[in-house]
Design brief:
single chain; flat; 5-stranded antiparallel β-sheet; alpha+beta
Length: about 625
């Protein structure tokens, strides 16, 4: 082992660096290899560090390509070192900064350009050269603007002088006969004063000959005293003096003419009234009129309108015009149907004219327009008479409501088609809150729905909102309905009457059952009879639909079932055994609802779920 100079090795053992091996990778740049001793590693690192120090302390960048331009004095060789180059640039900059600043000369202003700055009392009489030039530029611009205005005024004055010269000149020794322009007597022609005066005199004389002299005009004005302001008007009540256009004291021809027109208009209105009322016209004896009523089914569905024309009166000498009269019925959407009829015939018909409403919207009223036309071969008389007939969506028929403890069953008949939408709601009367609602689309004729989640012993208002064709009507049941008291449920063990085996627990809340009685259960839709075995406190798994005296009476019972079809596209048949023990079948087509009596649970052979079968109870 090599000697170690360190005198204190505590707490480590002394070991030579030549005995420690470099286990790292080769490092080519310093000549270090895997397996060298630590002494070799440290020595090679120290050598490389010394080389770097020597290089950085003596480095001089290459200045080749550097162009010193104006910083290098003429004839002087460019320096070789970076220090000499930087010093040359510093000297150049220092020389530039020693050059004194140039000061612009101050120039005296001419007296016409003296001015006093705003906010100062001293007058400015001299300015530096740059401010002097700016002041001159401003003054020159002002002068140019003034010259432009002066030039425009000169041109205007020149035009006016020409007009004046044309009106006054040429000057002559005697008075000149000037020309004038006339818009009336000589349109567009320049005429001398003398000709104009002669023309005016002639026109004045012609006007006086036509209208009359002032004396004659005054006489004519005063002659109108046969009708004064106190004279009664002919076409109404009051006097002429009460009319706003009447001149109480006419003094001019215009006043007289104005009063004359007031009288003429009054006479015209009076004559019109005489013509309209004094003598009957050819059509005055004809009366065109009719009444209309809505025809509906027993369930309130409109089918047509009937128009009765017995209030019309057409003389026997008159017949309908070619094409007859027409009656147009228009629904609330603007669709219409038109029918021709003979008023000459129907005026004596108590049954009137029936018009079908097929193709029209039935539940928003109708407008009926009758275009009458009759003729006697000489005179043609016509008139249009309009009336309306109201119509609304009918409320469902056969509405029933049946309450249990927490639900209400609602049934009704739908006669307005499967495009109707029904929303059945249960509203708590005490709070006004809708507790449950069901929406029924594409309904059949018989509709059933159940409102659930209700509270026992609570009064509800059941309403049906009917919508069709964009219109809606709300139909309330005539009386409120109250849910039942909370039922007391007793649980029983039961076993199948047909194949006794394991027992199940059922709940019954409509009274008390005795051992040996038989019941139909909800879990199998009443398809089997179950015998009461005993009571129990165990929880029930199903409920009782209907109770019988014993298994025999249950098995032979003929029960009533409601068949409700829910799918218009999936028809089928319901197969069952009637009360006489005979096999029977009834077709289920489209959306429908009907009731059957069967000794066995019915079977629907159509698509599963397309029809619901509900047990009601024994057939009556």
């Amino acid at each position: 082992m090599l000697p170690i100079n360190n005198g204190d090795t505590s707490p480590c053992s002394n070991i030579s660096s030549n005995c420690v091996i470099w286990q790292g990778p080769d490092i080519p740049c310093i000549g270090l290899c895997h397996g060298d001793t630590v002494s070799d590693v440290i020595a090679k690192l120290a050598e490389k560090l010394c080389e770097l120090l020597d290089q950085t302390t003596t480095a001089e960048p290459d200045l080749t390509g550097l162009d010193l331009l104006c910083t290098l004095p003429n004839g002087q060789t460019a320096p070789d070192t970076i220090a000499e180059t930087i010093q040359l640039i510093v000297d150049y900059v220092c020389d530039i900064s020693k050059t004194p600043d140039y000061v612009l000369p101050t120039i005296n202003l001419p007296a016409c350009l003296y001015y006093t700055p705003e906010g100062s009392v001293d007058q400015v009489t001299a300015l530096p050269l740059d401010e002097y030039a700016e002041l001159l530029a401003t003054e020159i611009c002002d002068i140019l603007s003034t010259i432009s205005v002066i030039q425009a005024n000169i041109l205007d004055h020149e035009s006016r002088l020409v007009i004046l010269e044309n009106c006054v000149l040429p000057c002559a020794s005697g008075p000149a006969d000037q020309s004038v322009l006339s818009d009336c007597l000589f349109p567009g022609v320049s005429t001398t004063h003398s000709d104009m005066i002669l023309a005016l005199e002639e026109a004045h004389c012609n006007l006086e000959n036509a209208v009359g002299s002032p004396a004659l005009i005054s006489l004519a004005i005063n002659t109108s005293n046969c009708i004064t302001g106190s004279t009664s008007v002919l076409s109404g009540t009051g006097t002429y003096g009460s009319l706003s256009d009447w001149v109480a004291t006419p003094s001019t021809l215009s006043h007289a003419v104005q009063n004359a027109w007031v009288v003429i208009c009054d006479m015209y209105d009076a004559i019109q009234t005489i013509q309209a009322n004094c003598c009957p016209g050819a059509c005055d004896s004809i009366i065109y009129a009719f009444t209309a009523s809505l025809n509906k089914t027993n369930d309130g569905v409109p089918t047509g309108v009937t128009a009765v024309f017995t209030s019309s009166s057409v003389p026997a000498t008159y017949n309908d015009c070619t094409g007859s009269s027409t009656l147009t019925v228009t629904d609330g959407n603007g669709a219409s149907t038109t029918t021709t009829f003979s008023i000459a015939s129907l005026q004596s018909s108590a049954s009137g004219l029936f018009v079908s409403l097929s193709g029209l919207y039935l539940y928003d009223g109708f407008t009926l327009v009758a275009d009458f036309c009759t003729t006697d071969g000489v005179n043609t008389c016509s008139e249009t008479v309009t009336t309306t007939v109201s119509s609304e969506i009918p409320c469902p028929s056969s509405m029933t409501q049946t309450a249990s403890t927490t639900s209400i069953d609602v049934t009704f008949n739908n006669w307005i088609g499967n495009t109707a939408i029904y929303v059945v709601k249960a509203t708590d009367v005490s709070t006004g809150i809708v507790v449950d609602s069901n929406t029924i689309t594409t309904p059949g004729i018989a509709v059933f729905t159940q409102l659930t989640g209700l509270t026992a012993s609570t009064t509800y208002l059941i309403s049906i909102e009917v919508s069709i064709g964009g219109r809606t009507r709300i139909c309330d049941f005539p009386s409120n309905i109250t849910t039942g008291e909370p039922a007391v449920t007793t649980n029983y063990y039961v076993r199948s009457c047909s194949s006794p085996g394991d027992m199940i627990v059922v709940g019954y809340s409509s009274g008390t059952l005795t051992i040996g009685q038989a019941v139909l259960l909800s879990f199998d839709n009443g398809t089997d009879c179950w015998e009461i075995v005993s009571t129990t406190t165990n929880p029930s798994t199903t409920t009782v639909l209907y109770a019988f005296t014993d298994c025999t009476s249950c098995g032979s019972a003929c029960l009533s079932y409601t068949i409700q079809s829910n799918d218009v596209n999936n028809d089928g048949d319901v197969n069952y055994t009637d009360c006489n023990g005979n096999a029977a079948s009834q077709a289920v087509v489209g959306i429908t609802n009907f009731t059957i009596c069967s000794q066995e649970y019915p079977f629907f052979n159509g698509v599963s779920g397309a029809a619901n079968i509900t047990l009601i109870g024994p057939c009556v």
